[in-house]
Amino acid sequence: MKKIFIFLIFLLNLNTTAFSKNDLYEKIDLFGEVLENIKKDYVDEVDQAEMIDSAINGVLQSLDPYSAYMSPDLFKEMQTDTKGEFGGLGIEIGMESGVVKVISPIDDTPAAEAGIKAGDYIVKIGKDQVQGKTLLEAVKLMRGPVGTSINLTIRRKNVKRPLEFEITRKIIEVRSVNSEIISKEKNIGYIRLKSFNENSDKQFLKSIKNFEKNKKIKGYILDLRNNPGGLLTQAINITDFFLDDGEIVSTKGRNISETRKFFARKGDEINGKPIVVLINNGSASAAEIFAGALKDHKRAIILGENSYGKGSVQSVIPLKNGGGIRLTISKYYLPSGKSISEVGVTPDILVEEIGDDFRIKSEKDNQLNYAIKLFNS
After folding, report:
1. Is 285 tagged catalytic?
2. How do residues 317-355 score in pLDDT, each as one tens digit?
3. Which residues are paired to 318 by β-bridges?
4. Which of 296, 307, 312, 365 is catalytic?
5. Checking phi first, is residue 22 left (phi over 0); if not, alpha (psi -120 to 50) or beta?
6. Which runs of consecutive H residues, i.e. helices, occur in the chain?
7. Distances (CA, A) of 358 to 223, 224, 365
8. Who has the most CB within 10 Å: 136, 189, 272, 376?
9. What is the pTM of this model?
């Protein structure tokens, strides 16, 4: 009953400007009545504590796909430093209509190697149905000791039957930047940015400086396909490499502290050379900030497919019971003032992905080949 009391106090403390306190008390009475009927008449005996956890999580997930409740056990596990003890699959996931959706598989990880694609829906993890589970519960099911295998059942757009994948867990260590000169006769610098982690800006800048030593470099292709995002600070730093001034991104929330604007500092690291940025449905969050800012400033041509549309900032807030909540506290806005949330970044040149082979010089990579041809014009 203590959990019920805490939950009701939470409801009473919500902003009630939309309706009166009496209306809210009526809703709380209704909630109590439903619980009593479940306790008395439901076909199976239920765990009331778990039921309240589900109710709290339902409140949070009704807000957006990224807000969620973590029980004390799950919160503790999410904070655990795995350092070789647990492995993962290498996919960034979100929720859509109660189903786990793949935002993007990360390059050179078990999920990518197995053939998981951005936009796939995970319907079963092992023998467990995903429908009805929270995002964090799904993450917990996919984690496990390194070297162990797990089966994922996937629903894919335009594929009638579910697809099954057996994937072996590994420690996920992502080197975020790969680079080389492609098409030597055209002297194009190619940089693939896989994620925005703590060292991405340093790796990225090192690649640029190495390229700039070659005085024949004509321009750059920056590949952010299947980049699930990462740190806001990294998105700002890397975008700043290519802008002399102007706004990069702004965040807006209910609290003043969450409403901020970030601006470029003087200095374009490549001195105005042309840029083509590759994006797809798996480009999300920080990747969308980068592509959207360069597009708005007309600093780059954006080529590929519409990005994912994950334009919000989450904060993890500990609770007194030892659990925690992940809560959306602000949204990203591009320099144009447009929100990325559920919209994404639209490419200047739409080129639908034929294959998903992002290896440099792959003949199957029609988007990269199209980008290379742009440097002829």
Report:
1. yes
2. 999 889 899 899 999 999 999 999 889 999 999 999 886
3. 324
4. 296
5. alpha
6. 2-12, 21-41, 48-61, 72-79, 110-114, 135-142, 200-212, 232-240, 286-296, 366-374
7. 9, 10, 6
8. 189
9. 0.76
183 is catalytic: no
Of residues 285, 307, 312, 330, which has the active-site annotation?
Answer: 285
Can you give the residue ranges of every domain in the chain? Answer: 2-76, 81-168, 177-316+328-374
Residue 310 is among the residues annotated as catalytic for this protein = yes
211, 178 Cβ separation under 8 angstroms: no
177-316+328-374 sits in which CATH class? alpha beta
The answer to whether the beta carbons of residues 340 and 309 sit under 8 Å apart is yes
| CATH 3.20.20.140 for the 81-168 domain, yes or no | no
CA gap 117, 354 in Å, rounded? 13
**Pick from 127, 118, 73: nearest CA to 96:** 118
Residue type, 252: K
pLDDT digits (tens, 9 = 90+) for 287-308: 999 999 999 999 999 999 999 9
Of the candidates 249, 188, 252, which has an alpha carbon nearest to the alpha carbon of residue 220? 188
